[in-house]
Structures are given as C-alpha cells and as structure tokens.
C-alpha cells in the first residue's frame, strides 16, 4: 500500500504544491492545499478578465469551461447532463433535498454521522412539512447497521439521506450497500459526498444514489467557493426549482417557460468563471493521478498516524469501524482541542477542531464536546506524521 504512489511521484506532487514547503498541512478535511496549476489557472483567468472583459474572456474559454462538466462526470461516472456546478456541497444538498415534494407523514431515514447543515434541513422539514426522520445508529464497533436500516423502511419512507464520510470521525458509511437497498425498495437516495470526492473513488452507478452533493475545497483540492451537484437524469423533473433565471430555462414567453432539460437547471447564470475553471483543473489533476491510487496512499498515512498516536501516552483516538478514511480524530488529556490546535500551529502544523455541533448525533452519543481532527492527504509524508506525533508527545 505504501508504494502505490512512488516516492519520486510524491516529491513531484509536493513540488507542484507551493504550500508544502511552508506548512505541514493536516487540515485537508477542512480545505486542502491546492496544486499550483489550480491557483495559476484562477489567477491567470482573472488577469485576462481584467484586461479583456468578463464576457469576452468567458467566450475565449468556453470550451475549457464546458469541459469542467465532462471532467466531473468522469470523476463520478455520471453523464455530463447530470452535473450542476455550484458554490459548495451545502447548497447542492439543500437544492436536492428541498426539491423533493414532501407531504405530512413522510419519513426520511438518516445516519448518526449526518452533518449539521443536513440535520438542520431535516429539522426544518419536520417543522415545515410535518415529516419524520429516523436515525440509524452505528453498532458498538462503529459500523452502520444495514439490517436495522432495511427494517426501518416502511410504506411512508420517502428518502434516504446519509453522509458518506462524517466531519468529526474517521469512519465511513457503506454507501453501495445502502444504494442496493434503496433501489430494492424504490426509494430516493441523497448522498452527502462532501468529504469523499478526491478522497475515495466515487461511482454513482455503483452507489445507486439519485443525488450527490460535493464541495471542491476539501480532498478535491479545488478553490474555495466551488462544488457540484449530481442529479440522476430520470429524477430531474421530479425536483422543484427554487430559483430560476434565463440560464435555468430553455425557453420563455410572455405567458410560460420551460426549465432546461439537464442538471444545470439547478444553477444560476452568474458565478465565478475563474473558480469554475479552477474546479475543472483540480478534477483533472485528481483524474490524472488516479483517485484509486491516492486513496491507497491516504489509507496508508492515516493508518500510520493512528498507530503512532496509540503509542503516545495521554492521547485518546476516537475512530472506529471496519473501514476508516483519511480523517484521524483524537483528544489530548488535560488540554482542550483548541489549545492543541493553536500549539501545533506555532510549529506550522495545521489541524482543526471538530466541534460537537458538526456531527451532533454522533458526538452526543459518544459524549464528545470537541476533538482534534488531523486529516491526511496523499501529498503528506511519513516524516510529517513523525513530526506531528513528536510535537504531541512533547505537549503531553
């Protein structure tokens, strides 16, 4: 597993990322260090806009902008007309979720790992539409209970909405198996893949989801303010639209209009073309390396970090389950998570604090108020893992 990416490749990838020379970055679940080519793509486009004009520059780069949709489709094995480019995963999730025609008494099934924005959406739907939602808890080993999940499905089940990789834990949800059950019962399936894209290989055909929401800034290494929504072609007409402009319609008269016949009906016309181009470049960068290869590298580094943390007296690791990802969470005895983060920052080591509110059901269940989150990426090194653990050992 260690050699899926060669040492020479890793050094080349680091050389193509300016930030690695300055910072040990273990906050990739928050926002990764972008490759230089992504940064340069955005900046060069903005410079050209300033010199040639916004509309004129967009026309010059029309093929590259259009190719962003093709690249995203390749990344998740979808059709280009099933992709909408948006600002982030939360907007994508809310557009998909609130596009569903909920009725009083409808039921939604979710998991204990659901992100705060999605939980707010569920609570809002309960207040607004009179729906109910059931939470399937993980078992004592930290695994999603597929049998309990299928047993929870009833005649009123309208939607399955789960988060693939949570914000404040290193576990993962079995999204393919959930999809098989969703298809078996013919139930809509909405997947939050905010932490997944660029982290693990994603195939919407294999997963069987109807909708999938992604952000760009995390493991995809795209600019902040980018993301996308996948909506399966067959259900696009079933989702309500909340905001429409001339871009979202294919024709309009003085008395009627018709929405576009693709997923771009969920977009609006005005957005940053520079960021869209940057998103496309980041996706292309990930595809060129191979997400299957980088996923192996991430698993190796995360396993290395977890193993070393267990050897440090005074540190409690919190991740458990049969399949773990690149997010590593832990606590340091006698030192709150924010202080740990700040002390590491003094050594140019970036981590983040996972607050209870981010994954409220899971954190409350495990009586955690906050944790330290160190999230590794393929461009991190074994030496950086050693340095992090060394500083933590001194801290304890």
Automatic annotation (TrEMBL):
Keywords tagged on the record: Aminotransferase, Pyridoxal phosphate, Transferase
Aminotransferase class V domain: residues covered: 25-388
Family note: Belongs to the class-V pyridoxal-phosphate-dependent aminotransferase family.
MF annotations from Gene Ontology: transaminase activity
Cofactors, names only: pyridoxal 5'-phosphate
Species the sequence originates in: Mucilaginibacter angelicae
UniProt cross-references to PANTHER family, sorted A to Z: BLR4730 PROTEIN (PTHR43586:SF24), CYSTEINE DESULFURASE (PTHR43586)
Annotated protein name in UniProt: Aminotransferase class V-fold PLP-dependent enzyme
A UniProt-annotated Pfam family: Aminotran_5
InterPro entries to which the protein is assigned, alphabetical: Aminotrans_V_dom, Aminotrans_V_PyrdxlP_BS, PyrdxlP-dep_Trfase, PyrdxlP-dep_Trfase_major, PyrdxlP-dep_Trfase_small
């Amino acid at each position: 597993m260690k050699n899926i990416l060669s040492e020479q490749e890793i050094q080349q990838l680091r050389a193509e990322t300016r930030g690695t020379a300055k910072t040990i970055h273990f906050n990739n679940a928050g926002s990764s260090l972008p490759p230089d080519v992504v940064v340069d793509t955005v900046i060069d486009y903005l410079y050209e806009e300033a010199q040639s004009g916004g509309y004129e520059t967009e026309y010059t780069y029309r093929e590259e902008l259009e190719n962003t949709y093709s690249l995203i489709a390749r990344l998740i094995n979808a059709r280009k007309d099933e992709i909408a480019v948006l600002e982030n995963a939360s907007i994508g999730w809310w557009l998909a979720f609130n596009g569903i025609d909920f009725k009083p008494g409808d039921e939604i099934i979710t998991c204990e790992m659901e992100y705060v924005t999605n939980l707010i959406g569920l609570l809002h739907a309960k207040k607004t539409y009179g729906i109910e939602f059931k939470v399937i808890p993980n078992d004592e080993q930290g695994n999603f209970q597929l049998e309990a999940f299928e047993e929870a499905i009833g005649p009123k089940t309208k939607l399955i909405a789960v988060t693939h990789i949570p914000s404040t834990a290193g576990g993962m949800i079995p999204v393919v198996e959930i999809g098989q059950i969703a298809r078996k019962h013919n139930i809509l399936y909405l997947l939050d893949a905010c932490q997944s894209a660029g982290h693990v290989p994603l195939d919407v055909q294999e997963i069987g989801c109807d909708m999938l929401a992604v952000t760009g800034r995390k493991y995809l290494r795209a600019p902040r303010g980018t993301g996308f929504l996948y909506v399966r072609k067959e259900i696009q007409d079933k989702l309500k639209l909340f905001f429409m402009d001339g871009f979202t319609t294919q024709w309009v008269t003085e008395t009627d209009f018709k929405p576009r016949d693709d997923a771009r009906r969920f977009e609006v016309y005005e957005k940053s073309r520079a960021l869209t181009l940057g998103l496309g470049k980041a996706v292309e960068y990930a595809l060129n390396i191979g997400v299957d290869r980088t996923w192996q590298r991430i698993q190796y580094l995360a396993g290395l970090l977890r193993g070393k943390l267990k050897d440090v007296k005074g540190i409690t690791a919190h991740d458990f389950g049969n399949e773990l990802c690149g997010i590593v969470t832990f606590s340091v005895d006698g030192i709150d998570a924010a202080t740990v983060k700040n002390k590491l920052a003094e050594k140019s080591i970036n981590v983040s604090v996972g607050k209870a509110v981010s994954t409220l059901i899971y954190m409350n269940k495990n009586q955690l108020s906050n944790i330290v989150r160190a999230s590794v990426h393929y461009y991190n090194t074994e030496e950086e893992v050693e340095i992090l653990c060394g500083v933590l050992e001194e801290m304890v």
